From TrEMBL:
One Pfam family recorded for the sequence: TrmB
Name of this chain's protein: Transcriptional regulator, TrmB
Transmembrane residue ranges: none
PANTHER family, A to Z: HTH-TYPE TRANSCRIPTIONAL REGULATOR TRMBL2
Organism: Candidatus Nomurabacteria bacterium GW2011_GWA1_46_11
Boundaries of every Transcription regulator TrmB N-terminal domain copy: 12-79
Superkingdom field: Bacteria
Length: 261
């Protein structure tokens, strides 16, 4: 019997019950019913603390209260109520965990990591839209590489509006993209969409993800994985911006060949 009691006590501890709560709960289960004085005395706890704990157990639907002082009694309810209470708490915790996942990017942005880069992950179609919306906060030119087919196939209704909003904000984009029919179609709209596009050989330079560099950020959009990533670091953004400027110099040479100039 002692081993069973220890097992029950451990279960209650693991469930968040304090030692005095466990003592009162097990005592009232054993007595069945009793006054605060009777239950507290047997549990070895002072009466005032017994009142607080019994009211807490009543709030958990583990005990019931009947009568009025000085003859008020507490009665133990079925142990099945403990299972029901723990199941309810588990559901609440799962709900809180899901809520925490949803605000994880915001929580991460508040996390002080000193001079270390901050990295944010955004999943799904909504996440991909979010990272592109963030690029509209750019205070200067954007340097990028894009995959128009994957972009428009994944978010078919989004990008026509995105191009308009970016052009309206006069955020200019320098980009190099694989030479495809859709890339040529978009290149023809460079002036309207506030962009300079350089075509590069598709087979020689495959680029399956989108990358945009703006402000102190690097945005990566993985269409296959439905994942958007934003790296916030002035040093990384500055380095990759220089790399992209250098790459664009070479991309323009390929563009002239492909465009027959």
């Amino acid at each position: 019997m002692k081993e069973q009691i220890l097992k029950i006590e451990q279960l209650l501890k693991d469930s968040g019950f304090l030692d005095k709560e466990i003592a009162i709960y097990l005592t009232i289960l054993e007595l069945g019913r009793g006054t605060v004085a009777e239950i507290s005395r047997k549990a070895g706890i002072n009466r005032s603390t017994g009142y607080v704990i019994l009211d807490s157990l009543a709030g958990k639907n583990l005990v019931s209260v009947s009568g009025k002082e000085p003859k008020q009694e507490y009665m133990a309810l079925s142990p099945a109520n403990l299972v029901e209470y723990l199941e309810t708490q588990a559901k609440k915790q799962r709900g809180l965990a899901e809520s925490a996942k949803q605000v994880l990017p915001e929580l991460t942005s508040l996390y002080n990591v000193g001079d270390r880069p901050r990295v944010f992950f955004y999943e799904g179609l909504a996440g991909l839209e979010h990272v592109y919306e963030d690029s509209l906060t750019s205070k200067g030119d954007i340097y990028s590489t894009s995959t128009y087919e994957e972009m428009h196939e994944t978010l078919p209704k989004y990008f026509s509006t995105y191009y308009e909003k970016r052009a309206k904000k006069k955020i200019f984009v320098h980009t190099f993209v694989a030479d495809t029919p859709l890339a040529r179609e978009r290149k023809a709209r460079d002036t309207i969409e506030y962009r300079s596009t350089s075509l590069i050989p598709k087979d020689k330079f495959p680029v399956p993800t989108d990358i945009e560099i703006y402000n102190n950020k690097v945005m990566i959009a993985s269409w296959k994985e439905k994942l958007g990533i934003i790296i916030e670091s002035q040093e990384i953004a500055t380095t990759l911006r220089s790399v992209f400027k250098l790459a664009l110099t070479e991309a323009k040479k390929h563009d002239q060949v492909l465009s027959g100039k």
